[in-house]
Amino acid sequence: MEIDQILNNIYPLPESSKSVIKKYISEISYPKGHILLRADKIETSIYFIKKGIVRAYANSADNEITFFFGKEGDTVISMKSYVANEKGYEDIELLEHCDLYELKTQNLQQLFEKDIAIANWGRKFAEQELIKTEERLIFREFRTAKERYIELLTNNPDLIKRVQLGHIASYLGITQVSLSRIRAEVK
Amino acid sequence: MEIDQILNNIYPLPESSKSVIKKYISEISYPKGHILLRADKIETSIYFIKKGIVRAYANSADNEITFFFGKEGDTVISMKSYVANEKGYEDIELLEHCDLYELKTQNLQQLFEKDIAIANWGRKFAEQELIKTEERLIFREFRTAKERYIELLTNNPDLIKRVQLGHIASYLGITQVSLSRIRAEVK
DNA sequence: AGGAAAATTTTACAAATGATAAAAAATACG
DNA sequence: CGTATTTTTTATCATTTGTAAAATTTTCCT
């Protein structure tokens, strides 16, 4: 997906503001398996996915939990670094070879102070991510694991093709064994 | 909590911008039990809590889930109405008599377009809510119900005194019976 | 204070999910 | 193509959490 479309999908920007942002954006590619963002670091860039798929996962003592998948058009960001300038809780791993647009957070922060259209674009970006996160938080509680799987299968069929089931299970909040049981039932 | 402090806690604003916002803010009180925001409505106001405590809950066919408590200094908002101008998924009920500051969304939206400091204040507001929501989504998965209860007890001891346990249980993602079991163990 | 209503706890049983281990299947790669 | 590795499935048993109903405690109202 091209950068113009990605920026506009978040919030329509006047051409002049869009050009200003694009001056600070560069393209970069990394291979499958590359760790793009690290939990123990204050990250200084955000990325938009041109092509490919990534996952965000957090670690605790004994297990690892995948809580986000990003694909074409999505933003890859350590929210904690971006918002609070503190290290985050997640690593982000590329699950395929990825073509990315990179933007230095610092440059964007400066634009927020100077360009009201960009400030409102940044506001809309946060608001939309918030809605998505809130919906996941709420609706997780209303559905059984089986329903959550079926919903993912319906809304995001390609995800299940592109991502291994262990990660999907973790994203759904269950073990891989449970997911296997569910898949056997649903089929 | 006074409105100046609430606004500043979100993001420090120049006095001039703060005065502009305050022109559109009025005070209002409602009794315990009042439903402040409704799931089936596009809400046109947001509120800041001067005094009191509220809960947000969503309904599905068979059960009701509390997913947010707000107290002094917190913002009460139908995020879906505010962000997307669509009806939300939650009712908000006052659990005590509440003194509130009310701000019409429409007025705020207009200020976003005119005042860059206010636009960035709105951005920071969304970003901070996002961080809080994301943390809840992630850390819920890492802790057992018992750990989540103990954490709430530690970080928010007054909540457990002010709110009935059925709501707390729902917030923790467990049944009231489970919470009772946990409380019997922990004591 | 007294009694009704609401909230909380307890108990018994059922269902869902987890842990572990091992087999089967799919994939990667020399 | 064949072997090693990874991923997925299957089976068993243990644990957690849920459901329902009764018992107890607290709150609220007159």
UniProtKB/TrEMBL annotation, chains A, B:
Limits of the Cyclic nucleotide-binding domain: 9-112
Highest taxon listed in the record's lineage: Bacteria
Protein name: Crp/Fnr family transcriptional regulator
Stored Gene3D superfamilies: Jelly Rolls
Pfam families per record: cNMP_binding
Biological source species: Zobellia barbeyronii
Alphabetized InterPro entries for the sequence: cNMP-bd_dom (IPR000595), cNMP-bd_dom_sf (IPR018490), RmlC-like_jellyroll (IPR014710)
